[in-house]
Amino acid sequence: MREELLALVSKRGTLLEPAAVDYLLNQEDPMGPLDRFLATCREVPFVITLRDVVQAAEIGRIAAVHTRSVAPLSTAVSTARVMPPGIAFRALPPASFRREGDAGADHAPNVSILRDITGRSTCEGTLEDFTRYFRNRFDTLARMLRNRRELGGAQDISRARRSTREVRFIGMISDIRPTKNGHRILELEDATDRITVLVLSNSPTATETFVLDEVVGIVGKVNDRGLVIAESVVRPDVPVAKPFPGIKEHLRVAFASDIHVGSTTFLDEKWSKLTSWMSSDDEIARSLRYLVVSGDVVDGIGVYPRQDEELAIDDIYGQYEALSTMMAQLPDHVTVVMIPGNHDAVRPAEPQPALPQPIRKLFDSNLIFAGNPSLVSLHGVKVLAYHGRSMDDFVSAIPGMNYHRPLDAMKEMLKMRHVAPIYGGKTPIAPEAEDHLIIDPVPDIFVTGHVHSVGVDAYRGVVLVNSSTWQAQTPYQKMRNIEPLPARLPIVDLATGQAVIKEF
Ligand SMILES: [Fe+2]
Q: 375 C-alpha to center of ligand 1: Å?
């Protein structure tokens, strides 16, 4: 049976995690969950994990009972989600959503998904895929950097290495190490060569923070030992000041994430208060048109060891059903846009596609499902929604970063024009042909979740939102002394970009 399992996955160009093999071999029908998983995933992941097969087994157990009783998605939504694979997203017309039969033009949502991996994943995780992925990342970010005045006439690294004067070049950081004297050494690469850069601790560049695999421009001088002394570091960044493209009316968008439905620590009373307020006569509540939900919408199953002890709903399908009921209770004038996070039932590797069809079927047709990350236009205002898993890597890589200050990490992402630059850390990255984690175009609003904190700010005209959780402190957080800030609702006015946080 083991051979049959491995033969099936290899035929589909993927791999099976050893723990998943063991799990399947202990099932009555070992092929069943694997078949089901492969049939429902739009993009075959490069490794099928234990979590994938456990969830598939769970969905299979209950699906037959439930799928008969749920309404199909509206034509508008399902048509929009079916897109041919392998087409560069810029060539695609945006998928638009308009709810038919709404109370009036005032209530009609105006949503387009401008950028999303869903239905367009092409990678299988081969070595060639990784090479192609990193080349695409480098080329795209290098193109942005070449437009910067400071990098006019930037050379290839192979030429810069032979120079004896001032040099300007662009490279991907492949190593960062401190010297005995407190300086830092960077190794940078492009397609032509590799070069060593010294960042002196007493120079203007001393305050710069660097992470592995980001793409930067360097202006410097070559010393007599062939080492480049960095004089300035140039990042792709966003324009210095970008006006907010305000719409005429004071329509508002609210942000939530990390609801963790199914967990014993899910705050159902706080969520009920939110639902009542949204349906109330409060002026701001009445002006709400959208709720963007940035991942970890349910707690999932098999996400961390002994999670079952902290679950109030211990099957994945039941968790999404409970969420669906909660969403159905929100007022009709609010359209929900939902992306997955690391607890949700999609591949963990980013970019993550939208939740799969068997789960989407549980929800009302007015819910819009998108991938993680996604760039979504709300009345023409561009919202970049990203769950925020990479914050784990930013916190470990950059001294001074911490989970209570997620907006700092978000500013770094905008400077680097990449939501998850660090490869090989806690954020699994799928080597797609095109790097969907690059921030392009520049959004008007950038939202993340994941860290169970909350905050709003702005960086060079981009409104920053870190949305709060709807889960109380978990035993794990308690053990690590992490105090979450739950049940806060950031709200942004689409007319002005002004952000407020409402506490429940
Ligand atoms: Fe998360």
A: 19
